[in-house]
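@channel sequence for tomorrow's demo:
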Amino acid sequence: MNTLPDPNQAPGAHTRDKASYPLNVSPMLRVLRFLTLILPGDHLRTFIYLNLIARPRRMLRRALFQFYRYDHVYAVLDEFKKRYAGRFSILEFGTSAGYSFVKLLFATVYLRMADRVSVHGFDSFEGMPATTDPRDLDYIGNDDWVEGEFRGDFDKLQNYCAKHYKNFELHKGYFDATLEPSLLERFKTEQPVLIWIDSDYYSSARTVMERLVPYLPSGCVLYFDEYDNMNYGSRLTGEARIVHEINHGLLGDDIELVLDTEHALHSRRVYRLVRLGEGPRYQPLNTDNTANLVRYPSNDSPLP
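structure tokens (generated this afternoon):
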């Protein structure tokens, strides 16, 4: 028969049955308890913990799991190279002076995909526009963009890329003007595999997604550069808001942006578009998907 603890009993006096509530002490906790025993004084114990335990552990976690925004580029291109046929495109929104744009271009060359992948850069090259939309603002860091910030030199970037690459196009102007119907129609045959959104504003990201979504196949990768940086990724502002709105039916109930944890690591920056029903699809290189599905007995252990 279970009984409630006596309310008149002193705090901490009530104990659980050890058999019903086992306590598995981690090796880390054992080490910390040992240090508590051998180190004199709370000041020294705290200093040792912060500088010789907590800080190295934090540095190791960051080294292993912190997101770096070019890691996924090569992985995504390699995936599509091996799995799908046809021509592809990479679209960068917010090209600025071209720092990331040329890295995207070089990735296609390094992986020998320059003949299959065209890289498009979209920017006004006049810097950040002014905004009064509250969904574009940073309410925590108070680090809002300044009009004209991130201005790029279109001619300089165009000349540099022309000397080193052939598979690129730069589109000068605001997104609602450059994402025009004839260009969007090209994306039916040059299917986008990676959408790189570095436009910073919610309003700009929304324009991009409203124009592009009908042309994006299931499995297309979307990278949001400022997702985590503005207001801690709050769904109320910035690029996080457009992801939240799409997943709540803004552009249709048949699409979803699913966090790609393999590429995003501890961030929330990389997504896969999933589309139900009718819509564009990638063409697999191998159409025989059933050849290796049958698994015959090999041994009876957990090993394969």
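heads up for whoever presents: Residues 17 and 208 are 60 Å apart (CA to CA).
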